[in-house]
Amino acid sequence: LFNVPNEPVREIVERYRARMVEPVLKAQAMLEARHTPDEARAALKIVIRALAEQMVETREVDAWAGFVLREMAEPGPAFDILFEQVWQPGVNIVGYMIGLAGGLSPKAAQIEALLMISSLSAFGASRPVSLKSLGWDDVEGERFARVMANLDRRITELG
Question: Over the stretch 42-55, which tens digit does the pLDDT of each residue have?
């Protein structure tokens, strides 16, 4: 990692990589085998599920949500690292799959990727608002399955 004296950014990048490398590699292998819209949707569901699992896991999100929100509001050196090593690669791979799945232009696919990924923050950093709105006390088990069913439906409807 770049020479940044900020421990939270290192931990965030390491956790992201630890959780996302395997699903992304699996999705890429699927797309290498068959470059079809259906295969792109299936690959996208794998990546979005892994990202959703990471974002809704209370311990991880609570540990660094405040730090990330501060970096977004007032970008500093950690923002650039998070952008280059976490956010931009995530938007690029999700956008690529959305483009394949929906036949969208690269820019339209990137916008859709940003919208889809940012919607997960409703159950991450913005969890208190979502829980109160839904009358839930957590996003686990059946509730997480309901969130994923909605995301899966959005992905299926691409194209």
Answer: 999 999 999 998 88
